[in-house]
Design a protein that fits this description.
134 residues, five-stranded antiparallel sheet, three-stranded antiparallel sheet, Jelly Rolls
Length: 134
């Protein structure tokens, strides 16, 4: 079963915790054993799993991405001026798979699922596909 939800971002670079939305879809699916695929079909956004307990981690990720892939670089050639957003998304990836066991997402104690937006603010669509185990 394929479900989706929308996320509105508020800044040029936004990282939004989407764990509760994904959990709700998994819960409503009734699937007790399987895999949940979280996918964002946008070339300047990504999905990742990381610590959700301390907001400083998200700030540090944003800071490090700016150092690794700076927004302004005179050597970028993409005409739209958002090369850094495309690169950041490509490096992180636009999907994640999470195991479902006993109807729950299998995440570490402090882990959450995040949507990363690098060319906002925008409204993004997130797809969640639940695959039943055998």
């Amino acid at each position: 079963m394929l479900q989706s939800f929308k996320v509105k971002t508020t800044r040029h670079t936004s990282i939004v915790n989407i764990t509760s939305s994904v959990r709700e879809i998994v819960s409503k699916s009734g699937v007790k054993d399987g895999v949940c695929v979280v996918y964002v079909p946008h070339t300047t956004a990504c999905v990742f799993i990381n610590e959700a307990a301390d907001p400083d981690v998200v700030r540090d990720i944003t800071y490090a991405l700016e150092k690794i892939v700076p927004w302004n670089d005179p050597n970028y050639e993409h005409g739209e001026g958002n090369s850094a957003a495309h690169i950041r998304s490509a490096v992180i990836g636009n999907s994640r798979m999470v195991i479902i066991d006993n109807g729950e997402l299998v995440l570490g104690t402090w882990e959450g699922i995040f949507l990363g937006e690098f060319d906002g603010p925008r409204e993004r669509k997130v797809y969640v596909k639940i695959l039943k185990g055998s």
